[in-house]
Amino acid sequence: LAPYRLKLLVDSAEVFETNQKVPYFRRVVSMMRTERFGHTASLLRNGQVLVAGGDEEGTAELFDPKGELFLGELMVMGAVRSGHAVTLLGPGSLFLTGGGDRSAEYYRIGESRFNLWPNGLMEARRGHSALVSAEGRLVLVGGDASGTVEELNAANGLFWTRLTLGKTVTSATLLANRKVLVLGPEVAGIYATAEGTFAGLEGLALLERSGQTATELREDKRILVVGGVNRKDELVAEGVVFNPAVLTTELDEYPSGSTVSIEGKGYLGEEEVELEVKREDGKSYEGKNHWLAV
Asked: Which pLDDT value is given to residue 15?
């Protein structure tokens, strides 16, 4: 926490009200038990929120949204953490990794206590991403100097390095096609968790940034990338919507009655895709205006 000691730490919280004509933030009357910075807030299945880390003592506390109260006494974590990552593993456990060192710990929701994981990470991490892959493996991406990817071997409880990108990674987001969008100030690409391979995205320099957020949009599963700074350390105002699924044709225009060749990338294997063909004026053709491609 040393780099942040000169900052004004706060112990307050706010609620964003969406059920209004004009959404707004309002301050919660109840205060946290201690000031925090670089902490995590995880929604539990019972509706409560676990606020963990970001203080110099290594504590956590619960917030009850029903009464809008921070509950009980502070819980002691296994290590002091700031900039760590939290992942839900199964219905009853949260797994916390990194936050300045190589340690990890888990929180059992029913027991309301923390336990240190017996084995450490391969790299000390802060500001990394942690996600559960489509294969059910815990994957840690970035947050270290070398931009490594490591996974937890469920059989022996050990972490192992899967890939080294050699560049700073600031976010990793699981996509609908079960791959991972990896972003950093000098990198933008797709990590395939099943194969352990990485492929860069060409012509998408605007995705290269740090300090950004990358959020999956609920309806169409695209990724909204907002904020951050670029490789020149300049603030980025432009937002980007990334769609991993792409359809391309051999030609931009085809003669009437000719056969059109369509290639799709970024879809799941054997996924059904519905195509709608529109006229030049944007209107749909009458009759056979929907094609089904596999």
From this structure: 95
Which has the closest alpha carbon to 13: 55, 73, 91, 65? 65
* Spatial contact of 177 and 185, defined as CB atoms under 8 Å apart: no
Q: Is 4 helix (H, G, I), strand (E, B) or coil?
A: helix
The helix (run of H) or strand (run of E) holding residue 273 is: strand 273-276
Residue 36 near residue 49, CB atoms below 8 Å: no
Give the closest residue to 132 by CA, choosing from 161, 168, 174: 174
User: Using CB atoms within 10 A of its CB, is residue 63 exposed (0-12), middle (13-18) or buried (19+)?
Assistant: buried
Q: What is the pLDDT of residues 144-166, one digit of tens each?
A: 999 999 999 999 999 999 999 99
The Cβ of residue 251 has, within 10 Å, a number of other Cβ atoms equal to 9
Rounded-to-integer distance, Cα 86 and Cα 196, Å? 22
Measured CA to CA, the distance from residue 206 to residue 193 in angstroms comes to 24
* Lookup result for tokens 């940034």: 209
Strands 197-200 and 213-216: unpaired
Helix, strand, coil percent content, the chain, rounded in steps of 5: 0, 40, 55
**All residues at 6 or more sequence positions from 187 whose CB lies less than 8 Å from its CB, including other chains:** 147, 165, 167, 168, 169, 200, 208
Residue type, 207: L
Q: pTM here? A: 0.85
> Using CA atoms, how far apart are residues 289 and 153, in angstroms rounded to an integer?
49
